[in-house]
Amino acid sequence: MEAILDWVVLVMRTVGSPGVGLATALETVFPPVPSELVLPLAGYTASQGHYGLVPAVAWATGGSLAGALLLYWLGAAWGLERTCAVADRIPLMHADDVRRAVAWFGRHGRTAVFIGRLVPGVRSLISIPAGIDRMPLLRFCVFTTAGSLVWNAALILAGYELGAQWHVVERYVGGVGNVVYVLLAVVLVVVVARRLRHGVSGEPRRSTPPHQQPRR
Predict the structure, then answer these.
(1) Closest C-alpha among 163, 142, 124, 147 to residue 45
(2) Which of 67, 68, 63, 64 is nearest to 140 (CA)?
(3) C-alpha 22, offset from chain centre
């Protein structure tokens, strides 16, 4: 991670504010590169006079949108049926789970995209169900941009104000991310427990409704 951050600093100082956009696009597509480190570091670099605060926020938001669009198109290309087929091959998972998740997203898509951009661990992944659901592209862009703008501005401004202590931001935001990961783990355990209990009971489960016999 230290090597990655050194590279990010080099790009930002060499390219300027567009380098912030490049770094943000990469952290959107590759979640292991945490935005809670990249964005405060961008703010700190701005405080040293390498570029302005407003251009840093603008380029970071553009980079977030670019990365989110890539994941959106991957979800759209993969499609619902192919995702369901993969789910049916994974132990303790069913196509019905995927269909319910996508149906939920269809009802709450705008809120999910906006709030999802503000939640560590979810920021990148939320673009994939948006693509699977074929959420209208303009709507996806608007809510992704709005959520990303709030997140990016808050973390970049924090790094700008903290200066050399920019890394303190990751300590607090990372704690929120850990809570999210724990909650996701709890949900996963509950789902697995239900699947195992269902398997022991021997009750049949269908991933799709039974075919209707043609009338004669």
Answers:
(1) 163
(2) 68
(3) 17
Q: Residue 23 corresponds to which amino acid?
A: A
The type of residue at 69 is L
Q: Which helix (H) or strand (E) holds 182?
A: helix 168-201
Q: What Å distances lie between residue 31 and 54, 72, 211, CA to CA?
A: 24, 15, 41
- Is the pLDDT assigned to residue 98 strictly greater than 70? no
Task: Quote the pTM value.
Answer: 0.72
- Start-to-end CA span in the chain (Å): 67
Tokens of 106: 């269809």
Q: Does 15 have pLDDT greater than 90?
A: no
Reading the block at residue 174, the tokens are 């990372």
Task: Report the pLDDT value the prediction gives residue 138, as an integer from 0 to 100.
Answer: 94
In sign, the C-alpha dihedral spanning 52, 120, 151, 125 is positive
Q: Higher pLDDT residue, 202 or 156?
A: 156
pLDDT band at 7 (very low <50, low <70, confident <90, very high): confident
DSSP string, 23-82: HHHHHHH-TTS-HHHHHHHHHHHHHTTSS-HHHHHHHHHHHHHHHHHHHHHHHHHH-HHH
Cα separations (Å) of 60 from 25, 81, 182?
8, 34, 28
Query: What angle do the packed helices 2-15 and 17-29 form, to 10 degrees?
Result: 150
**174 phi-psi bin (left φ>0, alpha ψ -120 to 50, beta other):** alpha
Contact 169, 158 (CB under 8 A): yes
Q: What is the pLDDT of residues 157-166, one digit of tens each?
A: 988 888 777 7
Alpha-carbon radius of gyration of the chain: 21
